[in-house]
Amino acid sequence: MNHRSGYLTALALVGAGFLGCTQGTGETSSDRTASSVEMHWMSAGAVSDACHQMGVVGHDSLNGCARSKPGDSAMCEIYAVEPKNFEDSSALRVLGHELWHCMGAKHPES
After folding, report:
1. What's the CA gap between 46 and 62, in Å, rounded?
2. Distance CA 110, CA 93 (A)
3. Model pTM greater than 0.85?
């Protein structure tokens, strides 16, 4: 799997299952105030493949996902397409969505 990895520490008062997806409805809540995040920037096709390999279901094409890093539950991994710039609202929205999962947020049960 080819990707560039970067690290960031996310501190927020937001975001409890770490396997994410790109859409959701309804209210959600978080249970963390801090999380360490490992970014995996990939092409759109590679992101979707990686997310499906991790078990994300419900969508044929995925723009991002997040999970607790195997063997290190304090580290959250986000797989997403890197935003082109600050005006790339679609990619930034996905990144924020997945970061919310890193903070512990879950989609409401259907």
Report:
1. 10
2. 23
3. no
